[in-house]
Amino acid sequence: MNASPLRGSQLKTIVVLFVVLRLTILLLYTPQGLLNAYTDYSYYYRTAQLSDQGYYPFVNMWYEHLPPLAYTSELIYRATQALVPTGNLDSFGYQLFARLLGSLMLLFETGVLILIHRIAKRAWDETTADRLSWIYSALSLPIFFWNASQMSNVTFFALLAVYWFISHHQTRSAVVLGLSIWLKLTPIFLLAPIAKFLWRQWRGIVRYVLIIAIIGLVIFAPFIAAGGGEWITASFRSTFARASWSTPWAIIDGNWGVGDVGDLPAHLQLDQAAVVQGNPPVIPAIVILSGFAIIYLWFFSRPIVQRGPKEFVWFSTITLMIFLLWSKGWSPHWATVIIPFLLLSFPDRRGLGLTLLLTGIVFIEWPLSDALGSHTLLAISIVSRTLLFIAIAAMSAHQLYRSPIADQATQLSSLTKDVVP
């Protein structure tokens, strides 16, 4: 009998091709974007330009993004200025700024790819890990938003927190989840799955949350010391005062915008932080929160028989879907956080199908409906996305809560069919 050769991981090949493709895009793709000629990079650039006039986020201006994200752009802007003169959005300075920021995001995006492989290998097996990595490397949506917004860093730290948590490194997991949350509040949804899987380990839960809080204090301390306390307060006020956008709640409220908080000059005035750019909520926020809290508590209170890596991923996916269904707002680049959880939860054709369906819905919403100014297309994308999130939550719950005995019976039945003629 001939011995079969040992099969090694394909991760190195996947990463090389992944990076080469994106480096080509980085060099040839214009930062003005597609269809509506707009990416978040231009907003980051114009914000950083205010520092030339002495205005800095959380020091003497309020800002809807948190300090690490804001000052990542500021750092890249200063690096650009050290190399070439900066000007308007048509200048070579902006072209270089976009490519430097894209290069930094590429490091994080490559980390996302590697972490998908690492988590899949731990939750499933190496063959599955290779397959998911190949799929992710070829997806269009991560490519589009990698070079249009700062989400690769958020997703990277969130997935690293998941990887270290399922690898039983809770302190490391808490540190990087803190970095992810204080980059953008969205990854806060992971606190609930972590609490579920640490349930009755009260010290572990308190310690985990305390580490995240300490990281937040460390991040904001320099701005408080610089006298920016009122600007920090105004920044959070702008976030919570924002009108609903791009969700079913926005349709109910009659808001068809994209969650604007005012143009940059408004950020220099404290009183403008609380100005709502849209209609107030028809349904009180406390009613919506209470309803979703009851739904989520039902999931949270149900026992999970096995508590391995795949179970943690499934419960995290359920939590993410409920979090997004509850949220008054939605930004298309949040899909880059969802996709890894979809692939890891359903490492077969279902995961790919759900990802491609989400991709189509997101592109209908942005940039297509935005470029055409079509409320009809936006409404179609919102309703479709909502139904998809409900379906994903239900499918994840079915995977998580199904009986292990029934699972074994299904596998035995499948084996019997293969053996018995």
**Strand portion:** under 5%
Mean pLDDT value: 90
Q: What is the approximate shape?
A: globular
* Main pleated sheet: none
Extended strand count: 0
Distance between the termini: 28 Å
For the CA atoms, what is the radius of gyration?
22 Å
Q: What pattern of helices and strands is seen along the backbone?
A: HHHHHHHHHHHHHHHHHH
Sequence stretches where pLDDT stays below 50 over 5 or more residues: 1-6, 408-421
What's the multimeric state? single chain
Helix content: 55-70%
Structural class: mainly alpha
Number of helices: 18
Characterize this entry briefly.
Helix content is 69%, strand content 0%. It has 421 residues and is mainly α. Helix 4 (92-123) packs antiparallel against helix 5, helix 13 (285-301) packs antiparallel against helix 14 (309-326) and helix 16 (349-372) packs antiparallel against helix 17 (375-401).
Features:
mainly alpha, 18 helices, disordered N terminus
Report what the structure shows:
There is one protein chain. The protein is an all-alpha fold and 421 residues long. It has helices at residues 11-28, 40-49, 67-83, 92-123, 126-138, 140-146, 152-166, 170-183, 191-197, 202-225, 229-241, 248-253, 285-301, 309-326, 335-345, 349-372, 375-401, 404-419. Helix 4 runs parallel beside helix 7 and helix 15 runs antiparallel to helix 16 (349-372).
List the helices and strands and how they pair.
Blueprint: H1 11-28, H2 40-49, H3 67-83, H4 92-123, H5 126-138, H6 140-146, H7 152-166, H8 170-183, H9 191-197, H10 202-225, H11 229-241, H12 248-253, H13 285-301, H14 309-326, H15 335-345, H16 349-372, H17 375-401, H18 404-419
